[in-house]
Design a protein that fits this description.
The protein is an all-alpha fold. 67% of the residues lie in helices and 0% in strands. The chain folds into 2 domains: 1-93, no CATH class; 117-266, no CATH class.
């Protein structure tokens, strides 16, 4: 029952994420006005805005102008619904399920936004970093190397926060340094600052080991999938900008699943 409720709630959050994906990059309010067709700008009735269902009923087209609706809308809604359901199935109706549901929603929003607009909104990355740090106080992380430099008398919550903060700062610092060196050597931007902030968010949620795994998976995906696309589309590899944040986001989702099966529920 709780898994089904989580799925339905995830569909609703996915619908809101779609609003964010379109509006945040255009500096529009995500609260007002009500949802509208981006082609004819007519307000969408509530019965045409039911997650996934309305898309299927309308055959992926606006009721008013018949403009095609991007498949991204039901994809994001369904992905978020499934992510929420899996989090509750794995952890029950407990705080860890909330943590990973929030993390999944942020990642799905970032994957969609970067893939579509090549932008990683601060509302997701910086807001997510703060959320990850807060969650670390209530859901202990595995102690990492940073624990060796802290007093043994500290409350375990502070060890967890230190792990979260260190991972966020360390990996975002590495990304920034790599980007700076690339720009100095190649005289062109190699990585946007949004990627730096996104990896800080991943570090805050997953700590050192989880972020390392994210980078490994995201890097492999970027090389294999991105490289294959560049070859098939006959793009110039030196000039084409891949949505690296999307690959990182997928890598982080896979990392969460891997860490769950490795460590078990916590």
């Amino acid at each position: 029952m709780m898994v089904a409720i989580a799925f339905l709630f995830g569909l609703l959050i996915g619908s809101f994420l779609n609003v964010c994906v379109f509006r945040l990059v255009r500096d529009l309010s995500v609260v007002t006005p009500r949802s509208f067709c981006i082609e004819c700008e007519k307000t969408i009735a509530w019965y045409d805005n039911i997650p996934v269902v309305s898309y299927l009923i309308l055959h992926g087209r606006c009721r008013q102008c018949q403009a095609k609706i991007s498949v991204r809308y039901p994809a994001v809604e369904l992905a978020t619904g499934l992510a929420f359901a899996l989090c509750v199935a794995a952890y029950g109706a407990m705080l860890p399920a909330v943590k990973y549901a929030v993390f999944s929603a942020l990642l799905i929003g970032l994957i969609a936004t970067d893939f579509e607009e090549l932008i990683l909104p601060d509302e997701f990355t910086l807001g997510g970093t703060f959320a990850g740090l807060v969650f670390s106080l209530f859901i202990p992380m595995e102690p990492g190397i940073i624990s060796f430099f802290l007093p043994r008398t500290l409350n375990p919550r502070w060890y967890s926060l230190a792990e979260s903060l260190f991972a966020a700062l360390f990996f975002s610092g590495l990304f920034w340094l790599a980007s700076w060196i690339y720009e100095k050597v190649r005289h062109r931007e190699g990585m946007g600052f949004g990627d730096v902030k996104m990896i800080a968010m991943v570090g805050a949620f997953l700590g050192i080991s989880g972020t390392e795994l994210t980078l490994l998976i995201g890097g492999v995906l970027g090389v294999v999938v991105g490289g294959a696309y560049i070859l098939m589309a006959r793009k110039k590899a030196a000039e084409y900008e891949l949505p690296y944040g999307s690959f990182l986001g997928i890598g982080a989702i896979v990392a969460v699943a891997f860490l769950y099966f490795q460590r078990g529920p916590r």
